[in-house]
């Protein structure tokens, strides 16, 4: 016996399969009624009952042995199947994939199930089989295979029909994954008054995805577009893992290898968007030589019935293509319920039962407990956090993105960007693409520092603007008039944030600090002394967004609502890296009082909760208060910096006056800012108002800004403060006619 000849493609394989099928149909025709062309009543099958048909039924009832020609066909079919199997095996060894063989292997189909697959596929492959099926179904309108035909044609013996029926039931893999019609042995499914075919005469047909897989007309079920993104194992070769000795990869790979057969690995990875959760799972699937189907839970239909249909298609796709399933929950909220959880339970249980190598993954931005997830039976669960990588790794990712152009940029730039922006790998990749687009808009091939800074700031996705007031930094260090000590403290605070990665990570201090690595500042001082301006300057220096939160508006009289608002605020801040500027800190952080009632108890709990979130926040938080002596000692002790903003003296006030006068503003020769600073005992915020009001008064008079305008503006501002401006204040400028400026 010679060596089997491999098939060149799947079509050659199917041609041989259809050969034994057609031989069976001809044999069945021969023993059941001769040549249909010689039968004058052949066109009335299903409408007229002939004597030959009755004699055939009588012969079956008596249990007569099958015709000799049928026994010969069964023997011939076995030999054909052995020959086909040998050629198919030779094809697989030669690296030629045969869809039918792959499907049978992956779904562990029996010989009878494989025959049924060929029978149903024939109806989709060529219309010539429609007449054959209509004839044997005794129904000119039923041109598809039926259970009756399958049982008569595909069984080797009468006793095999009982087992064959189970393959057509709802519990079998063929019925569960490959056929689209209703279970012929599970109720009629027809309403009263409607004609229902006998169950054995119900048409059975392959699902269109099973057909497209076998005929190689579709790589992935097109009905899953927008829901499923497939990744083939060979694609990962162009996406190396840049994180050396990644502990998360070690854990998940170890779980998949350790589990016994029959257990389903269930891997839950959580962490910020762009952290590489799916990339790690693609590497895992690639190592197993598996495809990966990433299912967007946001893309799933909201309707329960349509969602269940989509789940069935996902499970079918995964089983057909030997794929792992990754359910991606990108915007999860802690404590929320997974949509369609019970239906996912059923779908994944089906996947675990039918797939040859089931692997289920779940990715989300928050950690889920096992009870919150759809666990298949006998699941082996592991959970891993994919956090923002260390600064050194972030620097590696920046350099990898700029590998072709880094020689044109300063070598220190990558460390600066890595230290400044705590980005995930996905954010770094996106920032580089956007920066390159900005450069291309100017006709340049390499982005500059400004492009990279702009693109990096554009990576932040958050809803802070709905929870707080954004302040766009417009002040500079030159605008800040402060004594040397508070000025130096603010400078030092900026340096601490700028060099945090060097100290905490590169020098190892972070290993000794499980929390409290962020920067927290307490600003204290009278109103208008520059606390908000200092917050602006810090934001501008660090290149971060600034949001002001009025704690008096956050605090709620309803128990638990304050904590909920603060939790939402910090969750959004963690997505943005923004500076949180808490104004009116006295509203929550006044000295704790003796607990006399439930209100006092929960007020203290609210303060403790905010302090806990400030300590856990890796970014910058600033609290402002007018009265430092009223603040809780525990808060003061835990602040990174306490900066006192003193009331400005005459020299500082003169500098503030000058800082608020633009060089382009017209001023009279007699304007004496030193005199104004000495006579007006107000803070910087009020000085700003006086300067601006004086400018508008001068513009209305169509004159340069002079002392008379400052006098009128000062009187208006002091009246708002509840103070009176007497004429001696501006003596000797307006001794005689001071009243005219009121």
Provide structural commentary.
- The protein folds into five domains: 189 residues, no CATH class; 164 residues, Rossmann fold; 77 residues, Orthogonal Bundle (Helicase, Ruva Protein, domain 3), CATH 1.10.8.60; 168 residues, P-loop containing nucleotide triphosphate hydrolases (Rossmann fold), CATH 3.40.50; 72 residues, Helicase, Ruva Protein, domain 3.
- Helix content is 47%, strand content 9%.
- The chain has 30 helices and twelve strands.
- α15 packs parallel to α17 and α27 packs across α28.
- The chain is elongated, with a radius of gyration of 39 Å.
- About 3% of the residues have low confidence.
Properties at a glance:
742 residues; alpha/beta; Rossmann fold; Helicase, Ruva Protein, domain 3; 5 domains; 6-stranded mixed β-sheet; ATP hydrolysis activity; ATP-binding protein; WHD
Secondary-structure blueprint:
Elements: H1 10-33, H2 51-61, H3 68-93, H4 99-106, H5 111-125, H6 128-136, H7 147-154, H8 161-167, H9 173-178, H10 208-215, E1 228-231, H11 247-258, E2 264-270, H12 277-287, E3 291-296, H13 304-320, E4 323-329, H14 341-354, E5 360-364, E6 379-385, H15 391-401, H16 413-420, H17 425-441, H18 449-457, E7 469-471, H19 484-498, H20 500-506, E8 519-524, H21 531-542, E9 546-550, H22 551-554, H23 561-574, E10 579-583, H24 586-589, H25 598-616, E11 620-625, H26 633-638, E12 641-644, H27 650-660, H28 673-679, H29 684-701, H30 707-720
Parallel strand pairs: 2-5, 2-6, 3-4, 4-5, 8-11, 8-12, 9-10, 10-11
Antiparallel strand pairs: 1-3, 7-9
Helix pairs in contact: 1-3, 1-5, 13-14, 15-16, 15-17, 17-18, 19-21, 23-25, 27-28, 27-29, 29-30
